């Protein structure tokens, strides 16, 4: 499998002098094309900081992030789709207008954009609400809009931060199915989540970080403790993070 | 193209927000009240309408421009819509310029509508619309453009309310400060060092007084010569470019 | 946003007008002994703000008279018929605040000089009507603003030929300021000079004289009253009273040639 994303010795520090805090500490991992990669950690472990570095919002203190062997830039963001943890958008837009807005920023032509918008709204089951203002949307509906906007540029890599937050069980299942479909289509998915059972269900590989450091990286089925026992992701995670 | 996209979508906010319509109604109500006033049975009294009307138009336009421009970047950061925005293939510089253009569209759109109503009131009252009205329109747009630039720049560092307050204070204080420096520069007793310092200060401070044609318009003085108009336009463009340059630099370094 | 707007309005009005208003207020109102308007509910609620706004309106009328510029010089008041000239003419001496010629080394300074209006003009040829709104607002905000009544009455009655309006306006001024000899004087002047109604002129000017005496008006104020009243006496068949007034004026202004001439004139007319 091709390596689509390569993160090497990523360090991200906040603040200066005595107040300086290291959020990500020499993190290294890579993504292969077509895989679903689960990125796990407790609150404050450094997951969101890592994701912000991947999408170019944060400049790392040191280390490298390479997309297809090249440094991250605006060009690489053309093949990247990002779904943020908090789904808040412009209250004065409709979901259709929002997708149009993001689509234009990705340089997509009007006709393609029009077709794609309809398909995406259909995918997330929001076609009925396409002309309603986002200020009238519930948290779950906004999460669906958030997912749709991440797909507007038909990205090669999807980076999702807590994608199933706020979704009801049916919507979660639909999201999981959608991600698996994307994987089948050759897309690469990198996502963080607190729903360990879901991560275990769909991920090809997972990594667990704590205090900005990588603790373990493996396929869900290869999670074996010191005693040689094969554990569920949930059990393995709790044991590892508690140490 | 991407910059224009950001600008146009920001403009939608003005159209869909109720504040603008409220201010428009306020202006219309004020002009209607002024129009209906009778002063000792004397007709064709028009200067007070020009004076109060134009002041109201400017004030309300600033009341739209400043809050909008001061909110563009902080609102994106606070609501975290900045993350999906910057995850798209668009640079931070484009975001800043796009937001600035959006503020301009909002300010210009609001001001143009207000000014049109003001002109209508003047015409119906029997006033003449001449070159000076066009110059006043243009200079007011320049004023709004420079205020939006300042507001956008300050929004990278300050909260929305602090930003509006500081920008307004800057607007008021530089009027006074500029006049004082001018008097000093024109006085005979000024040594070379002080002169150089004051000259430097005079270059740096924004000259909002350049855009104030109210006295000329209200009291029927002559219009400004074309050379002066072009000089002021050039000055404004250069000043705004400088502010935006520093704004882009600051935003690029900002930790989001 | 609303709080910021209200704050901005407050800042604009106080900073922009405070120095002018304070100068006007302390100068005029203290002289007249006015310190409180306790019968007025709005004054009690809004206090000095109403008087400030009234003063600001009056100052605005002055600014309108001078083509948008405010001149602190007393000799360039709204009563300045002697200074009337055609529009855009430069005025003499200290009437203007023009700058000495200096080579401009700073292009921004050159722009500032080119856009600023350094010489004022007086409102003439009907333009005086533009002052009226500010006079009206001034008295609406503060009915005790005598000066606004006087000046407004002057422009209406003496320059704009709105005699009924002038008289009604001044009567309103008297109603609100019954002790104001200046308003009575202006009424008398309008009846005398414009309406040629000498009877009424005499009545109002006599009242002005009585009030001025009780208020211990200075000799310059008395000069205005006595000269007009003398004229009214003369026209209504009281020549002796005219002469008496001029004799009183001579005592106040001994050696004044103009007063001497008028005294001799009325004495001869009385013979």
Description:
- The complex is a heterotrimer of chains A (243), B (256) and C (271).
- Helices cover 33% and strands 26% of the residues of chain A.
- The model of chain A has no long low-confidence stretch (mean pLDDT 87).
- In chain B, helix 2 runs antiparallel to helix 3, helix 3 packs across helix 7 and helix 5 runs antiparallel to helix 6.
- The longest helix of chain B is centred in the middle third of the chain and has 34 residues.
- Chain C is mostly helical and 271 residues long.
- Chain C is 66% helix and 0% strand.
- About 8% of the residues of chain C have low confidence.
- Chains in contact: A-B, B-C.
- The interface between B and C is large, with 40 and 36 residues.
Give the arrangement of secondary structure elements:
The complex is a heterotrimer of chains A (243), B (256) and C (271).
Chain A: E1 3-14, E2 21-32, E3 36-41, H1 47-55, E4 62-67, E5 70-71, E6 80-83, H2 95-105, H3 110-123, H4 139-150, E7 157-161, H5 169-184, E8 188-192, H6 196-202, E9 205-210, E10 213-218, H7 233-242
Parallel strand pairs in A: 3-8, 3-9, 6-7, 7-8
Antiparallel strand pairs in A: 1-2, 1-4, 4-5, 9-10
Chain B: H1 2-16, H2 18-36, H3 47-78, H4 82-86, H5 92-125, H6 131-155, H7 160-186, H8 192-204, H9 214-218, H10 226-253
Helix pairs in contact in B: 1-5, 2-3, 2-5, 3-5, 3-6, 3-7, 5-6, 5-10, 6-7, 6-10, 7-8
Chain C: H1 2-32, H2 41-46, H3 48-65, H4 107-115, H5 132-141, H6 146-159, H7 163-176, H8 181-195, H9 198-214, H10 219-235, H11 239-252, H12 257-270
């Amino acid at each position: 499998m091709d390596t689509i994303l390569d993160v090497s010795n990523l360090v991200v520090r906040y603040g200066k002098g005595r107040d300086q805090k290291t959020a990500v500490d020499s993190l290294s991992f890579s993504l292969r094309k077509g895989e679903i990669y689960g990125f796990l950690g407790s609150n404050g472990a450094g997951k969101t900081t890592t994701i912000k570095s991947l999408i170019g919002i944060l400049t790392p203190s040191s280390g490298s992030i390479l997309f297809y062997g090249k440094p991250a830039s605006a060009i690489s963001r053309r093949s990247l789709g990002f779904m943020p943890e908090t789904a808040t958008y412009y209250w004065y837009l409709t979901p259709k207008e929002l997708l149009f807005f993001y689509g234009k920023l990705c340089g997509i032509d009007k006709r393609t954009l029009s077709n794609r918008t309809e398909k995406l709204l259909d995918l997330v089951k929001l076609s009925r609400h396409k002309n309603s203002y986002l200020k009238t949307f519930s948290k779950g509906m906004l999460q669906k809009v958030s997912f749709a906007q991440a797909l507007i540029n038909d990205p090669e890599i999807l980076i999702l931060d807590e994608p199933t937050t706020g979704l009801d069980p049916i919507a979660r299942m639909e999201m999981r199915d959608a991600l698996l479909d994307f994987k089948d289509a050759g897309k690469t998915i990198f996502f963080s989540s607190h729903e360990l059972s879901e991560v275990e269900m769909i991920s090809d590989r997972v990594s667990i970080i704590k205090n900005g450091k990588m603790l373990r990286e493996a396929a869900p089925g290869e999670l074996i403790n010191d005693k040689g026992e094969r554990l569920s992701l949930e059990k393995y995670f709790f044991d590892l993070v508690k140490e | 193209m991407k910059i224009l996209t950001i600008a146009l979508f920001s403009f939608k906010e003005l159209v869909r927000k109720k504040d603008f319509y409220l201010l428009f109604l306020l202006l219309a109500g004020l002009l209607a009240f002024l129009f209906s006033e009778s002063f000792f049975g004397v007709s064709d009294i028009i200067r007070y309408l020009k004076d109060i009307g134009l002041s109201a138009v400017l004030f309300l336009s600033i009341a739209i421009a400043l809050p909008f421009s001061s909110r563009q970047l902080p609102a994106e950061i606070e609501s975290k819509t900045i993350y999906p925005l910057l995850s798209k293939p668009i640079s931070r510089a484009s975001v800043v310029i796009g937001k600035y253009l959006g503020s301009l569209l909002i300010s210009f759109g609001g001001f143009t509508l207000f000014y049109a109503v003001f002109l209508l009131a003047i015409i119906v009252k029997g006033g003449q619309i001449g070159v000076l009205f066009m110059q006043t329109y243009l200079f007011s747009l320049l004023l709004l453009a420079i205020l939006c630039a300042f507001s956008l720049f300050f929004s990278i560092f300050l909260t929305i309310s602090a930003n509006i307050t500081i920008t307004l204070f800057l607007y008021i204080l530089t009027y006074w400060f500029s006049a004082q420096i001018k008097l000093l520069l024109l006085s005979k007793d000024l040594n070379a060092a002080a002169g150089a310092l004051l000259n430097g200060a005079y270059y740096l401070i924004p000259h909002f007084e350049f855009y104030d044609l109210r006295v000329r318009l209200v009291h029927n003085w002559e219009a400004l010569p074309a050379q002066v108009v072009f000089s002021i336009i050039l000055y404004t463009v250069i000043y705004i470019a400088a502010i935006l340059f520093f704004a882009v630099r600051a935003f690029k370094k900002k930790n989001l | 946003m609303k709080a910021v707007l209200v704050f901005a309005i407050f800042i604009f009005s106080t900073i922009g007008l405070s120095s002018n208003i304070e100068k006007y207020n302390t100068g005029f109102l203290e002289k007249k002994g006015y310190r409180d308007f306790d019968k007025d509910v709005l004054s009690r609620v809004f206090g000095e703000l109403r008087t400030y706004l009234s003063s600001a309106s009056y100052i605005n009328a002055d600014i309108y008279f001078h083509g948008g510029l405010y001149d602190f010089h007393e000799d360039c008041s709204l009563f300045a018929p002697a200074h009337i000239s055609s529009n855009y003419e430069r005025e003499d001496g200290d009437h203007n605040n023009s700058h000495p010629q200096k080579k401009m080394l700073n292009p921004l300074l050159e722009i500032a000089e080119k856009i600023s209006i350094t010489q004022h003009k007086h409102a003439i040829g009907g333009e005086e009507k533009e002052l009226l709104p500010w006079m009206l607002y001034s008295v609406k905000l503060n009915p005790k603003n005598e000066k606004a009544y006087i000046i407004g009455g002057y422009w209406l009655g003496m320059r704009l030929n709105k005699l009924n309006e002038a008289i009604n306006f001044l009567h309103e001024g008297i109603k609100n300021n019954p002790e104001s000899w200046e308003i009575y004087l202006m009424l008398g002047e309008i009846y005398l000079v414009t309406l040629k109604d000498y009877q009424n002129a005499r009545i109002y000017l006599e009242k002005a004289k009585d009030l001025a005496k009780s208020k211990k008006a200075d000799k310059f104020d008395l000069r205005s009253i006595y000269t007009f009243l003398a004229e009214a006496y003369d026209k209504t068949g009281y020549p002796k009273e005219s002469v008496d007034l001029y004799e009183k004026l001579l005592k106040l202004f001994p050696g004044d040639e103009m007063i001497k001439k008028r005294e001799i004139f009325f004495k001869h007319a009385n013979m």
